[in-house]
UniProtKB/TrEMBL annotation, chain A:
GO MF annotations, alphabetized: electron transfer activity; flavin adenine dinucleotide binding
The name this protein goes by in its record: Electron transfer flavoprotein subunit alpha
CDD domains: ETF_alpha (cd01715)
Species: Vreelandella alkaliphila
Function of the molecule: The electron transfer flavoprotein serves as a specific electron acceptor for other dehydrogenases. It transfers the electrons to the main respiratory chain via ETF-ubiquinone oxidoreductase (ETF dehydrogenase).
Binding positions for FAD per the UniProt entry: 201, 226-227, 240-244, 257-264, 278
Automatic annotation (TrEMBL), chain B:
Protein name as it appears in the record: Electron transfer flavoprotein subunit beta
Keywords from the UniProt entry: Electron transport, Transport
Organism: Vreelandella zhaodongensis (Halomonas zhaodongensis)
Keyword Electron transport included in the entry's annotation: yes
InterPro entries: ET-Flavoprotein_bsu_CS (IPR000049), ETF_a/b_N (IPR014730), ETF_b (IPR012255), ETF_beta_N (IPR033948), Rossmann-like_a/b/a_fold (IPR014729)
Length: 308, 249
């Protein structure tokens, strides 16, 4: 078996997600190569070469792969996939954007959001917003799958794989990058944070989200939100936790003014400890919370911040 | 410009599903079904393009059982002009749906195809990307804004770090994210009118597409239940529990 892992990049650097995908690849077993594709990605390739379990890093460094647009990335993967039994990427917006193109062009299915490896062809994945877990077996010659990073512990960075350039350059006359607005934050990234504090519609407005800042500072936490809070414009879309937003599984998740709809729970119910703060004691979030505190968040948050 | 919209019949998003006792699948008997919410957003976007004079015709297509006609009628009531029903009772995976949609694209030659980003039953998030690959068209996935400009379309995408805008040549494939628009409700007179709009009935065989997948569903289980429900009386008690019981502080 030989596995190709598509590396995730964040502003040209290797993203933390990749170490989790390599862990999933190790669970499958076999030789593991990592593909780093982008423009000016040598540093990312060097970082990928340190990931434990990786035998070779293949670097496609070319302007056509800048911003990892789906069309050239899909075409590149099709060129390389012939050498592999499995191609994996994280279930990030990049992995989700690119991998299905490879699968379709190879005439194979894709398994999305894999959370468990039973064997080289049998995998676990959540369906219906995580309210059911499916065990699926793929008889396709090439297995193409995205991996939910929270389900696999990251590998360490003590390795030293070889790094080699990929000479394949594809054409792309169909799509072009226009612009990007990335959220700037000193906080840990949502997907990898040990503590997440999330606000919902109960926060009332965007200004009130500042009430979460002090708590997040003290706990070294990332800040998340419910869809209602994002839709209402309190906070940007990249903070949405849930079935159709980000999946998080921190040590501690604090849900503030969030009712606990199925779609929100789908994104956080694998957290180790869940705290809910809500003024409605009947709110469904309390059914999954290890510790529920009923009350007005505007009174509770300042007190919590001062006492932490 | 013709706009093709793909809609899927799925479990209503409010329903809490149950796994069958024999763990063979999820139990959908007598469960409320509806149009996938992301597909509602896709239909709404297409209809708005028509209202703006950008689109001339909106065609809705679904792959699914006889009952999926309900969702096509909903799309027609919301403003689609006609519908195509590719009828099958089999479990059709994203790849087969994409192959069928590719045939429809070939036949209909739309300027834009709009799909949901994700079906809330399988949570696959694949079909639009696969369709783009099979038709060799560019894709704008997870769209929160779609701006057609001559022979191009600018799509703003919701990505992990924020927002990204790409320019695509038309025809193109777009998949919708939640912030693209807020779908309207169908009005009663429109629901009546929708009954008279044309609906073409087809089968996968008409398109020469084999729907069987090489992925088999071995079993379906309920996830581990969380034991929640413990309430604390004060902030002090909460901090104490987090420190001394849960040991996460
Ligand atoms: C296709 C689809 C996908 C979706 N995807 C997601 C997703 O990924 N993530 C997601 O979160 N949602 C998602 N949703 C939306 C989801 O169904 C809910 O609508 C949403 O999660 C509700 O957000 P909320 O809990 O903040 O708001 P509400 O349900 O309005 O709850 C607000 C809560 O705040 C409490 N509150 C109000 N004021 C105070 C106060 N002063 N002090 C304390 N508590 C207070 C209230 O008691 C209430 O429980 C999706 C929906 C659909 C249809
Ligand atoms: N059976 C189907 N019929 C029509 N469209 C579908 C079907 N399955 C998926 N789609 C489209 O593809 C989108 C994404 O679905 P998926 O990739 O399966 O998560 C949906 O929102 C629909 O627009």
């Amino acid at each position: 078996m030989s596995i190709l892992v598509l590396a995730d990049l964040h502003e040209g650097q290797l993203a933390g997600a990749t170490a989790h995908v390599v862990a999933a690849a190790k669970a499958i077993g076999g030789d593991i190569d990592v593909l780093v594709a982008g423009e000016g990605v040598q540093a990312a390739a060097d970082a990928a070469a340190k990931l434990d379990g990786v035998s070779k890093v293949r670097v496609a460094d070319n302007a056509v792969y800048a911003h990892q647009l789906a069309e050239p990335m899909g075409a590149l993967l099709v060129e390389l996939a012939g050498d592999y039994s499995h191609v994996l990427a994280s279930a990030s917006t990049t992995g989700k954007n690119v991998l299905p193109r490879l699968a379709a062009l190879k005439d194979v299915s894709q398994l999305s959001d894999v959370i468990g490896v039973e064997s080289a062809d049998t995998f676990l994945r959540p369906i219906y917003a995580g309210n059911a877990i499916a065990t699926v077996k793929s008889d396709d010659a090439l297995k193409v799958m995205t991996v939910r990073t929270t389900a696999f512990d990251a590998v360490e960075s003590t390795g030293s794989a070889s790094v080699e350039a990929v000479e394949v350059v594809v054409e792309n006359g169909q799509s072009s990058f226009v612009k990007q607005e990335l959220a700037q934050s000193d906080r840990p990234e949502l997907g990898g944070a040990k503590v997440v504090v999330s606000g919902g519609r109960g926060m009332g407005n965007g200004e009130n989200f500042k009430l979460l800042d002090g708590i997040a500072d003290k706990l070294g936490a990332a800040i998340g939100a419910s869809r209602a809070a994002v839709d209402a414009g309190f906070v940007p879309n990249d903070m949405q936790v849930g079935q159709t937003g980000k999946i998080v599984a921190p040590e501690l998740y604090i849900a503030v003014g969030i009712s606990g709809a199925i779609q929100h729970l789908a994104g956080m119910k694998d957290s180790k400890v869940i705290v809910a703060i809500n003024k409605d004691e009947e709110a469904p979030i309390f059914q999954v919370a290890d510790y529920g505190l009923v009350g007005d968040l505007f009174e509770i948050l300042p007190e919590l911040e001062s006492k932490l | 410009m013709k706009v093709l919209v793909a809609v899927k019949r799925v479990i209503d998003y409010n329903v809490k599903i149950r796994v069958k006792a024999d763990n063979s699948d999820v139990d959908l008997t007598n469960v409320k079904m509806a149009m996938n919410p992301f597909c509602e957003i896709a239909v709404e976007e297409a209809v708005r393009l028509k209202e703006k004079g950008v689109a001339t015709e909106v065609v809705a297509v679904t792959v699914g059982p006889k009952a999926a006609q309900e969702q096509l009628r909903t799309a027609l009531a919301l403003g689609a002009d006609r519908a195509i029903h590719i009828e099958t009772d089999e479990r059709v995976e994203s790849l087969a749906v994409a192959k069928l949609l590719a045939k429809v694209v070939d036949e209909e030659q739309p300027g834009l195809v709009i799909l949901g980003k994700q079906a809330i039953d399988t949570d696959n998030n694949q079909t639009g990307q696969m369709l783009a690959a099979l038709t060799n068209l560019p894709q704008g996935t997870f769209a929160s804004e779609v701006a057609v400009d001559g022979d191009k379309v600018n799509v703003t995408r919701e990505i992990d770090g924020g927002l990204q805008t790409v320019a695509l040549s038309l025809p193109a494939i777009v998949t919708t994210d939640l912030r693209l628009n807020e779908p309207r409700y169908a009005k009663l007179p429109d629901i009546m009118k929708a009954k008279k709009k044309p609906l073409d009935a087809k089968t996968p065989a008409d398109y020469g597409v084999e729907v069987a997948s090489k992925v088999s569903l071995l079993k379906v289980e309920s996830p581990a239940e969380r034991k929640g429900g413990v309430k604390v009386a004060s902030v002090d008690e909460l901090i104490d529990k987090l420190k001394n019981e849960a040991k996460v502080l």
